[in-house]
Amino acid sequence: MFVPERKFFYFLGGYMKGNLESLLNEIKAKIAEANSLENLTDVFNIYYAKKGKISELMQLMRNIPNEEKAEYGKEVNALKEEANLLLASKKQVLEQAALSQQLEQEKIDLTLPGKNYYTGGINPLFLIKDEIENIFIGMGYEIAEGPEIEADHFNFELLNIPADHPARDMQDSFYIDEKTLLRTHTSPVQARVMQEKKGQPIKIICPGKVFRRDDDDATHSHQFAQVEGLVIDKNINMANLKATLELFIRKMFGEKREIRLRSSYFPFTEPSVEVDVSCFECGGKGCSVCKGTGWIEILGAGMVHPNVLQMNGYNPEEYQGFAFGIGIERVAMLRYGIDDIRKFYTNDIRFLQQYVRIK
Ligand code: FA5
Fold first, then answer.
1. How far is the CA of 63 from the centre of ligand 1 (A)?
2. 127-157 pLDDT, tens per residue?
3. In the predicted model, is pLDDT for residue 252 greater than 90?
4. Which stretch of DSSP H or E encloses residue 28?
5. Residue 321 CB–ligand 1 contact under 6 Å
6. Cα torsion at 247, 248, 249, 250 (round to 10°)?
7. Topology given in CATH for the domain delimited by 124-352
């Protein structure tokens, strides 16, 4: 450590020299005593502030004869320098101590139990929706979208279901006003896409929510989800539809599950079919889930009706098409063995945890 030489101040005799020495000793003692950064700042202020003791030494300069001023200044600077060094090194020691203390206080006890946050998971319905999408994307389909609040015109009329047609009873609806309703199926997207593609070939699916005034039971809900499919091109026939549906069902349920195509009626397809899959609960014997039939209906389908093609800008002499509407909940129920459709919507975490990891 630098120790300044003190050999003069004869102009003020031993008094000044003694003063400088005792000042340095005083500073040293205060620095040694300081046990926090705040204390050290106080020490600094006492000596270095405008009216501090070191500043006072400089003011004494004016009493010193000119020829001795330089020597005196040097001596005071040496004192200042030593005090600076002492302050800086003490500051380092105190900072280190403060850091160690902080680290000590913030030490993490890895043995303490952690806080448990739920991160959520994907509802099994969405897992199935994604799987259905992937199967059809693999067959070259594109994904289309349509509004959930739909015009009566698209939901019914452009699908060959004029007002007062008895087929409207098949899909009891939630109306917003006379001409607007919550769509009862994803089929209006057929009309929307046909009008958009203006006579060009089409190969789309459209997943989405639909709404009906159905009474809720094990297999019916007033809100559910469908995936619409529509293919329009030249030379499309019923065999293409059957092959497509069989491929989808085999990919979705495996080779072992039995399926049946039943002839049916939809005003927008001719001929029409409904597809049933053997009940997962009873294996086909009949139970409360399948209402004793041994089968669960998962989709409706058919060849696009010539009237629908015509109304939406396609010449039925030139173009044919098939369409289908798959009930996503029903597929999920069959796939996972879920015995009540309402379980998808009640948000019981114990139910969801069986299908997805919820931490
Ligand atoms: C229709 O909705 C037609 N739009 C399907 C269609 C599309 C036919 C294209 C021809 C061409 P349906 O009402 O049968 O059809 O419903 C289709 C599927 O939705 C049913 O097979 C069933 O899986 C499901 N579904 C129908 N109603 C309900 C309901 N209330 N709750 C849950 N799923 C339902």
1. 107
2. 999 999 999 999 999 999 999 999 999 999 9
3. yes
4. helix 14-33
5. no
6. 50
7. BirA Bifunctional Protein; domain 2 (3.30.930)
